[in-house]
C-alpha cells in the first residue's frame, strides 16, 4: 500500500493522513484515530490496520496489503459481516 492509497475506504482516509495524524497527535489509544477524518468508524475493516500503524515506532515502514488485495479482502469482510 502506497501513501496515497485509502486505508479507510468508508471515509476515504489515506495512509498518509493516518501516519501524519499519528506523528503529530501521538494518540494513546487506537480509538483516538477516529479523530483522523473518521477513520475506523464505518464498517470496521481498517481498525486492525490502523492499530498496527499506531503500535509501530515507524508507521511509514509497516507493510500493508496492496490496494487491490485490500479492497477485495474488505469486500469479503463486509459480505460475511452482513450475513
TrEMBL record:
UniProt-annotated stretches for the region Disordered: 61-83
Residues annotated as domain BFD-like [2Fe-2S]-binding: 8-56
Stored InterPro entries: BFD-like_2Fe2S-bd_dom, BFD-like_2Fe2S-bd_dom_sf
Domain of life: Bacteria
The protein, known as: BFD domain protein (2Fe-2S)-binding domain protein
